[in-house]
Amino acid sequence: MSVLTVDHIAVGYSNTVIIEELSAAIPEKKITTIIGPNGCGKSTLLKAVARILKTQKGAIFLDGRAIQQVSTKEIAKKLAILPQSAEAPPGLTIFELVSYGRFPHQRGFGTLKKEDLKHIHWAIEVTGLGELRDRPVEALSGGQRQRVWIAMALAQDTEILILDEPTTYLDLAHQLDILLLLKKLNEEEGKTIVMVLHDLNHASRFSHYMIAMKDGEIITEGEPKKVMKSENLKAVFDINAILMTCPFSQNPICLSYQLNKETECLLQTVE
Amino acid sequence: MTEENYISAYQQKKHRKNIFLILSVFILIIIMFMISMSTGFIRLTPMELIRTLFGMGTDKQNIILFDFRLPRIVISILVGMALAVSGSILQGVSRNALADPGILGINSGAGVAVMLFISFFPTTTAAPVFFLPILAFIGAGTTAILIYVLAYKRGEGISPTRLLLTGVAVAAGISAVMIVLTLRLSPENYQFVAVWMAGSIWGSNWSFVLALLPWILILLPIAYSKARVLNTLNLGEIPATGLGLAIEKERLILLAVAVGLAGASVSVSGGIGFIGLIAPHLARQLVGAKHQYLLPTAALVGSLLLITADTIGRWILEPSEVPAGIVVAVIGAPYFLYLLAKSKA
Ligand SMILES: Nc1ncnc2c1ncn2[C@@H]1O[C@H](COP(=O)(O)OP(=O)(O)O)[C@@H](O)[C@H]1O
Ligand SMILES: [Mg+2]
User: Fold this and answer.
1) Rg value, chain B, Cα
2) Spelled out in words, what is the top-level CATH class assigned to the domain B18-344?
3) How does this chain sit within the bilayer (chain A) (predicted)?
4) What global pTM score does this model have?
5) S-S: B245 plus which of A110, B89, B240, B287, CB 3.0-4.6 Å?
6) In this complex, do A83 and B227 lie within 8 Å of one another by their Cβ atoms?
7) Which residues pair with A221 in a beta bridge?
8) Is the ipTM reported for this complex over the cut 0.90?
9) Chain A interface includes B221 (CB < 8 A)
10) What is the pLDDT of residues A127-165, one digit of tens each?
């Protein structure tokens, strides 16, 4: 079952088409990760799914309805997006920024109701920001800021969370922190998560479903065991990867890799 | 105490603090109001002032106060508010703390309309005083629409950055036109236009107040009702769309409100720069970036700044007057540079 389907879309920016034709079905209540080289259109795809970019052809269906036909506020109650680079305006506290996540549920002037406070509180606690809630956002470290934006998306109280590179710029431990949080949200709250990750091993370890893209097209998709194969990685990233099984997740991980052309050089010298 | 209670207690504390700050600015305005009323060529002692305000003054005192000073002070209060709120909206929508109503080409648009009129109908020197606001408003509105059309890009709508850049370019073009027009003006007319452009509130009378008041009464509540929308827009395009805001529509409404406020004020006071830039910035330092607090605070700070500037302008070179716009610029330009330096750092 899927609540989110991408049906033969073309999407791009003013004059350039980045994705010419792409279809995909995002499995419900699962973690889906998109991988692919820089500039292959991962963010473009996510932006189209989150109706930030209009599709030039085809349609995206949310709960069976084309998103162009649903009011943007209606969508915001079901789907939250964490952009790749977001910067809070100066002078906001963490509490205030997270409280903005309640926007689609509010009316009129925006006084926070009990229901709103409940979600804000939960979002702040689950992201471990309780102690910091009254601090200005600009006084936080990169990792903490990332968590504030995640908290804002959580306060939005949606079934679907879309995250573009949520772990980039974080150190190893904080990367795991975020991924474990997402895993917990998926397991305990049943949230559907779609994200872009650059770390293949994290992608393999934490996702139920992977989509590998190159040049605006899907090269292969499926569960990690199917996608994380050396021939796929060669096709997508142009690398020769040595794969083994992750002792934690039993999924394939990449032990080490070489650029394809490097390997060819090596083979030539051996000959 | 549960966490949720903690959050609401914290909110209430912050709310009380912000209300206190807003009231403080309000009290400063009242003090400045009193000082301004007694400042001028003919000084009034506080006692005389109070007696005149309560209808027990001499005829001369009545005329000075009610016909000259009071309308002028009321105009500064209204114009200060309008410019500050207009600036807050522009800064919120464009996510640029250096945005200012002047950048929308509103001041120069109003200026060129006034100049065109005076240079082609120089004989009607008596008429313009009442005709000016209407002309200026038409000029300001036309320029704003022109800039909007030029900055609009099909399929992408209007990007705030492009809007500001187009505004700067159009304003520069209009300045060039104005220089050419200057050549046509007689010295008296030139002086008139120059003082008007510099932003002066002298010559204000109650009909100016009446011309401005409806705009303020309609547009300020609209702006305030959009506080939540402004908060969201201020996060940037992608987060705002993600939160379910109809960006294009809301942006257009807010820009129209900002243009209306700035156009209405420039039409009665000429081009007063910097208030729309500084007032929102000071207000943000006081109460933070939430527009529910920011808008009213900025409005009051704007009023306070403009009354103060006008009072200083009246007093500093007595008996001549320095236009309030110039006083604001003298204070505002260094502040602008300071902001610029800080934003680069
Ligand atoms: N705002 C934009 N305007 C024009 N082209 C863009 C824009 N954003 C991205 N692109 C181009 O679209 C292509 C795909 O970008 P993107 O989807 O961001 O890649 P990634 O897979 O790294 O997220 C790139 O070639 C990029 O240069
Ligand atoms: Mg990207």
Assistant:
1) 21
2) mainly alpha
3) Peripheral membrane protein
4) 0.88
5) B240
6) no
7) A211
8) no
9) no
10) 888 888 888 898 888 888 888 999 999 999 999 999 999
